[in-house]
Write a structure and sequence with these properties.
By secondary structure, this protein is mainly alpha-helical. It is about 85% helix and about 0% strand. The radius of gyration is 55 Å and the shape is rod-shaped.
């Protein structure tokens, strides 16, 4: 290459470099103008052209990065504004789960966002309140059915979630009242049971078996599985049946004794009456029949009649 050619080539390169620098400068001016106007899309486009024209231009590259960050930040801000609006609507509709999702999305974009954290706290409290209220309602159903153990289970679950929650505390107070009432009822029932058992035993000792059975049955209405009451009732029932059996046999013997008297067989009447007294010592009717037969027999002997 001649010196003239080499010089021309160098001149052209220099001219091209100047044009490139001018173009880069123009694009950077345009980019800065767009940036100042918060038109970050425009700023990115202009600075990207500058970088493509001059890849070694660090200023253009840094500006492009700043514009991209600003655009993303703007997008995040717009997203946050939208999500905040939606989160507030969720809370207005008492949709805790919806509000939790929206506020967590905001905090993923900006973990220091104070309002989003406050909304999330409100959503968490709303969700907690709903859960506790559901547990309280189930406990109320248990109490309506007089199932204290069931109510205690749901109360424990509510306390595990938040023992300081007003609904948890109210349930605990109400349950404590039921427990005290139940204890009083249990104590009163135990006293009734003991009185009933004592009465049944005393009746049995007096051989008043009907009274013993009735007293034992009252105890069994309170405690169906009370073994002492079951035993007393069974024993009294058996003894009552034995009394009936003896009474039937005594009545039969007395009937036979009266037949003997009608036949003037006083020895037979006395024997029948004595058999009745063996079954039922002190039986008034049997004693009367025996005395009547003996007295008649004595008078007949004294008058000289032959008697049987």
């Amino acid at each position: 290459m001649s010196l003239l050619g080499a010089g021309w080539f160098a001149f052209r390169q220099h001219q091209n470099k100047l044009k490139t620098q001018e173009a880069v400068a123009a694009k950077m001016v345009a980019a800065e103008t767009c940036f100042d106007q918060s038109d970050f899309t425009c700023a990115i486009e202009q600075s990207l052209v500058a970088v493509n024209l001059d890849p070694q231009n660090t200023v253009a590259a840094q500006f492009l990065q700043s514009a991209q960050i600003a655009k993303q930040s703007r997008a995040n801000e717009e997203t946050i504004v939208r999500l905040m609006h939606e989160a507030n609507e969720c809370l207005t509709n008492e949709d805790a789960a919806c509000a939790q999702v929206k506020t967590r999305d905001i905090l993923a974009l900006d973990k220091e966002h104070v309002q989003a954290q406050q909304l999330l706290d409100q959503a968490n409290h709303l969700a907690q309140t709903k859960t506790i209220n559901d547990l309280v309602q189930q406990a109320e159903t248990c109490l309506q059915q007089a199932d204290i153990a069931c109510a205690e289970l749901f109360s424990t679950k509510a306390n595990e979630i938040n023992s300081r929650h007003i609904a948890s505390q109210a349930l605990a107070v109400k349950l404590a009242g039921y427990q005290r009432s139940q204890l009083v009822q249990q104590q009163a029932q135990e006293q009734q049971v003991q009185r009933g058992l004592s009465e049944a035993s005393q009746c049995f000792m007096r051989k008043d078996y009907r009274c013993a059975i009735q007293a034992a049955e009252r105890v069994l209405q309170l405690e169906p599985a009370n073994s002492q009451a079951v035993e007393l009732k069974q024993s009294a029932s058996m003894a009552q049946q034995q009394v009936k059996d003896v009474e039937q046999r005594v009545n039969k013997l007395l009937g036979e004794a009266n037949s003997c008297i009608e036949k003037k067989n006083y020895s037979c009447a006395i024997a029948k009456a004595e058999s009745a007294l063996d079954l039922s010592p002190g039986h008034k009717q049997a004693t009367a029949v025996k005395n009547r037969a003996q007295e008649t027999q004595r008078k007949l002997k004294e008058s000289g009649f032959t008697i049987k």
